[in-house]
Amino acid sequence: MLDDIYSECEMEMESSIEHLRHDFKSLRTGKVLVSILDNITIDYYGAATPLSQVASVIATDATTITVNPWEKNLLGDIESAIAKANIGVNPNNDGEQIKLFFPPMTVEQRQESVKQMKGMGEKAKISIRNDRKKANDQIKRLEKEKEITADESKSAQDKIQKLTDKFTAMIDDILKNKEAEILKV
Known about the structure:
Blueprint: H1 2-24, E1 41-44, E2 47-50, E3 55-61, E4 64-69, H2 75-85, E5 92-93, E6 98-101, H3 107-144, H4 150-183
Antiparallel strand pairs: 1-2, 3-4, 4-6, 5-6
Helix pairs in contact: 1-3, 1-4, 3-4
């Protein structure tokens, strides 16, 4: 039963790391990524549909993204959805496709991205601490119900703390690498 608690806690902590990596896709770095448009949805026949399902989205170079809708009547909807998303550029609609021209990032923009990234990292650390608390609560409940001894409880909580430390260090490494990537000109 303690092994179940350990494995569940580790899986939840790993999912926090994956969530952090997914959040990073929305951050702007020196090179523009099409994933910056991942959260944009279009009203497609009454259903909120991700942009990638109604158009091809291609990074044509380091500063340009081209959005080519499969149905030309969606151009206006896509253009307004991109404008509402506030990603830092205005869409250019030429009647066939939409081009997004991202200017090179300024030092201030890079520092702002780093600040956002650190906020995302802090949320991930909070999530990991919550996972630790949940696991420790389960262990304490087992001790209270006399299913494990006080020594086993202490040992189990120490193991959970080691897991927490491992994942917190992992987040710190990820943040350090991402910061270097963002600040690299």
